[in-house]
What we know:
Layout: H1 2-71
Amino acid sequence: MAVDAIEQLEVKINRLIEQHERAKREKELVEKKLQQKESEWHHLKGQIRQYERERLELREKLDKIIGQFSTLDVSE
């Protein structure tokens, strides 16, 4: 009877070890995905800053062009 209890305990321990290893692998995968998403986020944040700079440059150029039109004398 004591041998059965020890064998059952051994089975439970082995099952817990397997569950722990599985959870550990899943955690590593999730951490890797998180790092990839953070990297993507930083890249996209950089793109947004670049687009904002380009937008500002275009706005300044358009304002300059519009300003040139407003100085033209178009009266006939």
